[in-house]
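To whoever is covering the structure queue this week,

Two jobs came back overnight. Logging them here so there's a record in the thread.

Job A:
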Amino acid sequence: MTFSNDTIAAVATPFGQGAVSLLRLSGPQAREVFARCWRGRALYDPRRAALGKIVRPGPDGGATVVDEGLATFFPGPASYTGEDVVEFTGHGGVLVTRRVLDALLAAGARLAEPGEFTQRAFLQGKLDLTQAEAVMDLISAQTDLALQAAQEQLAGRLGASIESLREDILGLLAHVEAYIDFPEEDIDPDTGSALRKRMEAARTAIDRLLATADQGRILREGVRTVIVGAPNVGKSSLLNRLLGFDRAIVSDIAGTTRDTLEEVINLRGLPLRLVDTAGLRESSDALEQAGIERSHAALSRAELVLEVADGTQPCDRFQSAAPTGKPRVLVLNKADLNEHPSWLGAEAVRVSCTTGAGLEALAEAIEILLTGGSVAGTSDLIAINARHQACLQRARAGLDAAHTLLAAAQPPELVAEELRAALQAVGEVVGEADPEELLGVIFSRFCIGK
């Protein structure tokens, strides 16, 4: 990642042909660089679009018109990056967009690196690190709940929670260091008890945030959900029903599915990566056997197993293929037909892939299994990511150590050292103590132009 204050430029819209394209410049010379290839009303009025042409000077002193469109000037610090920003909206062809970018680069801008605009917003104090990460979550959100979680984080709810936690730990550290400055004063039992209670309150706040890590992973990455069962029990039919269209071939002939099929669905705000598999049975057919081997491989990587059985057949014919310890829902298909008496009392979700009956009950069972019902419908959604989780776990370890040392009446210098470690770990969540290397890793995952 390049750390500089020069002027950068990039295409901010996705690659490909469209109605319009957006190009963005940011930096101390953004307006001046843009003016070198702009022929239209001067960009003096902030946030007011101006019509004009982009030109590229020729070797003979003339200029070639590249595109015509609207330009808008956003003076810093009242801009996305906190710097002077110019945005140009032109025609959305691949070639013409490239030629406009070439003109901007020839005029003195540098091509932006992935995430550099948002990185500059962070460095200028427009966003904390959690909000900067939320920008990418917002772009990649596949469900309403993932979108809501990203919006909550972008609005600063996670950052505010972290800042409150930092203030609590900082207060604890200041209290302990006061005793270090005055060695003749010992931490009396009452004061020590009060400090330990404050540490416990901070640990509780950390635990509440850590409890959202699994929900955050589900919302951001989805849940790899493998549909398994014997041949002809309705696995492909269930996949098609959940998707809402015919993705998999359905046939009465056993062994029709020879390979795994994968699709993503939005189930009550939760992204599920559904994987349909070949029916599990003994087979001498080499092609079918290869599909069955892939089914077992998919099962080993599954985060949720939907095990489908034919409810019209005897229960003793069913043999579970789900690996031990994997979250699992038993789905009894063909609920529109008479259920075999041997299934009476079985803990399963009854569905009919023919009529669609029972699909809402299946969705509810999956939601409860994955979230305990604590995500859907919530108005205040905080969901930390893996980086936040690692920082908060270190912070909790520091608080635990400080609590233990204080309870054992150890020197306050040792308690303060653990509190400092906890404070730094919490600060890293919002970017208060992040090295440049970490920032480079985070922002390199962004698309160019953002």
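Job B:
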Amino acid sequence: MGAWALFLAITTVFETTKTSLLKNAHIRYVSTTDEEGEKTTIASSSLLINASISIIFILLIAFFSGVLSSWLHAGPDLAVTLKWFIPGLVCMIFFSHMEAIQQSHLDFKGVFAGYFVRQVLFFTLILGTWLLHIPFSLPWLAIYQSISIAVGTLVITGFSRKYIVGRFDPTKAWMKKIVGYGGYIFAGGLLSNIFANVDQFMVASFNLTNTWVANYSTAFRLNQVVDIPSYAAAEVIFPKVSKASIQEGPERVRYLYEKMVAILLAFTIPTALFVIAFPKLVIFLIAGKNYSDAAPILQMYMIAGLLRPMQHQGANLLNSIGKPRLCFIINAVSLGVYLIINYICLSNIGFYGSAVGTMIASLLGAICWYFIIKKEIGAVLPTIARHIIGYYQIFLTYGKNVLAAQQSRK
């Protein structure tokens, strides 16, 4: 489990960082032009950059995965698993490109279908292996991931056909423009993704057996479930804010930010409070009794998670209004502070040190992000709080109406 957790962290950091460079620029430029020829040129240039970055990463895996595996105390398992995932990385070039095409046209059906097929097929392959008692080893997971991504790519491509003109027309000018726009987003995304996974890397380098990593990974994966609405909202709101910043002005941008953060917190707060109150129950139901030590880690992650919607949407907002440099600076400073706090806590507390460090750093980061967003667009907490209360009133009214309808039927 420790080696698998590190594999997921490495591949996730790469893919999400590459996405930060390409998808945001792709979506922003395509969604703000009406010329079909220019849209094709933007998409072609983005695809060429996408493929180039992936090839470099594949070469790094081929030559240096053994060194990385040794440094993280993962034995040969991590290196072998990464190499078996190379076909999946090739498929991800096209999957992520089709995802950007869909979202740049404000069409999310294909994205949903592609991810749904990927995840269901991956789960089905694992379930089939277990039910049929087929001998199993860690590299099989990488193979299953590759197969699932390949099939998901075919699905999302089918949904994207209406946006594909069958012409590959990249230009140096657009490649330079995409990298120029996405450069800071790329660096900021890299720092943000390292920030999200650095606790697992630091724990792995501190602990020779990777047993700590398995517990941290369990808490991290459960915590990600709470973060899913925030990431999904960022995908939807980015093209809308990009348009609003150009066509409607800062008032509309502030309104979109406050409403989005409010609706996310309306869902996140009750979920996080439940997990904080019953962490061992959640761990037992999802991961089993062997991971009960992860319960306090999960609690601290959830406390930090209460503040993440504001930070996620804040970073997304700065990128969408054309201030990726500021976002990069914030992420760079945040990562530096996080590394220092995490190192001090791990050295002095031990097993739970990284979770304590994550919680402290996240609280400090949330305070920093709030004042920056307030300065940039004027968003304030009282307005967000009023929106949250308004959403709860809507939910309550809807619930009462449903109950009243059921009683009237009886």
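Note for Job B: The chain has a mean pLDDT of 80.

Please reply-all if you pick these up so we don't duplicate work.
Q.
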